[in-house]
Amino acid sequence: MSAEAIVQNYFEDALSSFRAYKKLADKAIAQLKDEEFFVTLDEEANSVAVVMKHMAGNMLSRWTDFLTSDGEKPNRNRDMEFVIGPNTSKDDMLAYWERGWKSVFDALEPLRPEDFEKKITIRGEEHTVVQAINRQMTHYAYHIGQIVFLAKHFRSAEWKSLSIPRNRSADFNAYLVNKPVKGGVADREKQFDAAAGFSESTK
User: Fold this and answer.
1) Model confidence, pTM
2) What is the Cα Rg of the chain in Å?
3) If the chain, 203 residues long, is cut into consecutive pieces of 10 residues, what is the mean pLDDT of each piece?
4) Which phi-psi region, left, alpha or beta, contains residue 193 (left: φ > 0; alpha: ψ -120 to 50)?
5) CATH, domain range 3-162
């Protein structure tokens, strides 16, 4: 496999992973009641709204002019990402969340193999494009895990599973054996979710 093909494979997988992480978070967020966006488990904990605000602020800083400017923008106020104003609504948070994710995909989707030869900086520290992408991917996965944890906690018995429903792992494995599909894990799970007995209504 050529170096260019390896880069292309990595890029496609990274893009797919970002989309899958966003979808996971969106499905968890959709289950929350409006007031639950702003609830904290204790005085030191972050609410779902705070996690979303922090992630979106990070995204707008890191991905705006991704290849041409430092990832920590001068106008970013990170500390304020952990403060929710008294008049902030669920709709405000969702709009900011979508704005942040748009900056991610607006930066990623146009990338070409030759762009991966470039170096960028984050807080003055030099990164390869792969390092920068991986840094943000792991950061977002960490925070999305927090969102899912909180949403599941608040919904309790009403929680709708975001992955293979409990006690159905064997069915999932049998499906993969009996109906192999092309593509990565995300593609397999997407097709599996659409199969009989694993529709969105059952999860």
Assistant:
1) 0.84
2) 19
3) 89 94 96 95 96 98 98 97 95 97 98 96 98 98 97 93 74 70 52 44 35
4) alpha
5) 1.20.120.450
